[in-house]
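Records of this kind hold a single protein each, on a pair of labelled lines. Below, a sample record shows both lines together.
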Amino acid sequence: MRKNYFDNCKTSQPAPEVIDAMMPYFGDKFIFPANFVLGGSTAAEELEGFKKTIADSIGANTSEIHFTGSGTIANNIAIKGFLSENAKHGTHIVLSVIDYPDLLTNAAFFEKSGFEVTYLETDEDGFINLKQLENAIRPDTIMFMTTFVNHTVGSIQPIRKIREILDTADHKIVMHVDAGQAYGKLPINVNELGIDLMSISAHKIHGPQGVGALYQRKGVMLGSVIHGINRLDNHQTGAVSMANIVGFAKAVELTFRDFDQNVNHLRELCNYLLEKIEKTIPYTLLNGPRGKGRAPHNINVSFDYIEGEAIMLMMDMAGISVATGSACASQGLKANYILMAMGRNHEQSHSSMKFTLSRYNTKEEIDHAVEKLAEIVKELRSRSPLYNKE
């Protein structure tokens, strides 16, 4: 049975070049990166080189990059580290109701700890309310958090405009950005955008699972979140996986080698997919914006009268991997919180399907997937009491 994979939001297939680059670090190149011994010094120099690869891709300095065990760990180090270290300057946080769970759960944690949190609303396409952001800024606001590309509907938040709004305050407001779905899909220069803290992840760009990175602008102070022996980094203490880090760096190298070509390929595939779905299957609704306001790899569509979970399971049985709703919320049978915040009803939320593509997908795979999808939707609607068969 052929397997077509359209769930790259959750994780992506490691590139063959990534796996090849990692293999020596499971064998001969096992020595821990440390100075004073030949093998360790060589590994330490390599580690700095890998940091530079990441830093160059976002316009940062090597000293501003910290490797972590995942994007989620990077988010936690950034948010908890900053708020715990800087609470004396203020205890007010701003984010939106459609942010990634890492951000929302951290905000809830600090809200229980005595901080005040303002949650911004969203419009029907998944863009946060900038007027509310302007009105939310207070003398004690110290952090704004946002998800660069919405993980469910692909909306691209206007980071530069947000920075301009934050800069209207008479004090510094630090901006933390979860760029897990944006990195490698959009051009990101942290200085041009005014980003202070940013998390990224390797396995979203054909790198290995279990490694991420945190960008920390020089001068932004973070308290310790993970305590232990400080071997290489004061934020994530203890050992590091050199194999994962070299895999991350190789994935970055491959992604940015032909960046524009990769992005244009993704957008072309997604436009083709959406056009095929809308031409082939009636009663569909695109969730999120059309065009350049949407990330190039994400298509989210609701299919009226049926459940997304049923579509996902039947597609999986046909050898096609897709997602329903949010990848981090779909284990529960609750309506997707992002789609509900955008004004979708329960039926539209439950019937949503998310296709996230990669450079390894092809139009032939899309043709096959849409053909199967049309058959499954037709069958499920024939069983649905909600569907008017006339």
Q: What stands out?
A: The chain has a mean pLDDT of 92. DSSP finds 13 helices and twelve strands in the chain.
